[in-house]
Amino acid sequence: MFIVMGVSGSGKTSVGEAIAQQQQVLFIDGDDLHPQANIDKMSRGIPLTDEDRLGWLDTIIQEALAVTGKGEKVVITCSALKQQYRDQLRTGIGSITFLYLKASYQKVFQQLEGRQGHFMPVSLLRSQFALLEEPAQRERDVITIEVQETLDKTITLVLKKLGLI
Predict the structure, then answer these.
(1) What are the C-alpha distances in Å from 105 to residues 22, 60, 80, 101, 113?
(2) pLDDT at 118 over 80
């Protein structure tokens, strides 16, 4: 199971969909699992708290277990910005490979400016970077991918790094 992680706007959904399509497995966008209260809060430009995220992470865990319990494979997107969030996912799900999409604030800001139809406003990007705890070396289940100049190049890099193309 892969969890594609990183700040909002780093390309998680596109990368996750590409991996799922290549592997012919289920794709779950973690943003679709947020409770309405979280969506409303973010839509108003209010960053989520650790408490806000706990239930959301539990929902992701339950969805992952439901899929893998049927013997299916899945790719999930989830920001997983803090080590404690990644640890919660590890404890709840078990075997995971995280793909961390690493990018500078400026690169992600530029990508977010062109994004439409998402509840997460550009104004919350600073709070995401402030919260981000980049995976430590001891987190051996994390593969770091530098976000490239285009989404297509990032997807190609990910698929190559995973040995899928």
Answers:
(1) 29, 26, 17, 12, 12
(2) no
Beta strands (DSSP E) in 64-139 are: 74-77, 97-102
pTM metric for this prediction = 0.92
**Could you give the CA distance from residue 158 to residue 165 in angstroms, rounded to a whole number?**
9
- Give every CB contact of residue 126 below 8 A, 6+ residues apart in sequence: 105
- Answer positive or negative: Cα dihedral of 21, 26, 30, 31: positive
Q: In which element (H, E) is residue 160 found?
A: helix 151-161
C-alpha angle 123-126-128 in degrees, rounded to nearest 5 = 105
What is the C-alpha end-to-end distance of the chain, expressed in Å?
18
pLDDT given for residue 125 in this prediction: 85
